Every structure is written in C-alpha cells, then in structure tokens.
Amino acid sequence: MERDDLIHDNLYSLSANHDEEHGKAIRKKIWQVTAILTAITIVEVCTGAFIKQYYEGVANEFWWIIKWSFIILTVVKAAYIVLVFMHLGDERKNFKWVILGPYILFIAYLIFICLSEASYWNEVFNGPGSITP
Asked: Which of 61, 68, 91, 114 could be cross-linked to 95 through a Cys-Cys bond (beta carbons 3.0 to 4.6 Å apart)?
C-alpha cells in the first residue's frame, strides 16, 4: 500500500494551488481575529481593573450588570474562537448551532450551579441560625 501523502512528484506540486492572493486573505483574517479578541480582552481587563477604584459606592444593580457583562463577553470570545479556529464560520447555520448549542447549555448549567451553591453558602453563613466560621 502506497501512502498518498508521501508522493512528491511533479504532478503533486502542480496541483497545489496556493497563490499570494489566498495567503493575503488568510493573513487578513488572522489579524482580524487577533484585533477582535484583543479588543474584547482589553475591555474586560480595564473594566475589572478600574471599575472598583473609581466607583467605590456602587449599587448592587450596577455590580450585577458588570458580572453579567463579563460572562457575556467571555461567552462571545469562546464562541468566536470556536467559530474561527474550528473553522465553523464557513459551515451552515444549523451545523454551527449543533456544535455551539452544547457549549452554551453547559455554560448555562455551570452558571446555574454556581449561583445555587453561592446562595446556599450565603444562607448557611449569613442567614438565620448561621454558622460562624
């Protein structure tokens, strides 16, 4: 049995049709992905670093907005990474949702578990008849 990935003859090299135009498009896509992910990361880092020191007496409603914005931005970054680096951006819409749907459900489940456990621990330590650590 002859492996076709080891054949190096003239016909193989002529059939490889990579040109400079295709290379430029790929490099442009890489820079676009880098810029988008960097911008989202900068927004997250700046928000996390500066929001507490500039808004010391912030209401609870504002903190919920910040927490949910972090969750949403993280999910957007994860979905974008999956779409680009797993090459799902070029697939059909239904196939994208077949791949992304379980991720979204899993993240929603993790958020639910974190919130329910946090409310339980809050009740244990701060509720009536609480345990003093």
From this structure: 91
Confidence bin at 47 (pLDDT 50/70/90)? confident
CA-nearest of 82, 91, 92, 101 to 33 is: 82
Question: What is the rounded distance in angstroms from the CA atom of residue 8 to the CA atom of residue 75?
Answer: 44
pLDDT band at 55; cut points 50, 70, 90: low
Tell whether the torsion through CA atoms of 65, 67, 69 and 75 is positive or negative: negative
Asked if residue 96 is part of any domain, the answer here is yes
**Statement to judge: residues 84 and 29 lie in one domain:** yes
Which residues form the domain of 107?
91-133
Structurally, the chain folds into a number of domains equal to 2
**Domain match, 50 and 95 both:** no
Output the CA angle 32-40-54, nearest 5 degrees.
150
pLDDT at 15: 56
CB 41 within 8 A of CB 85: no
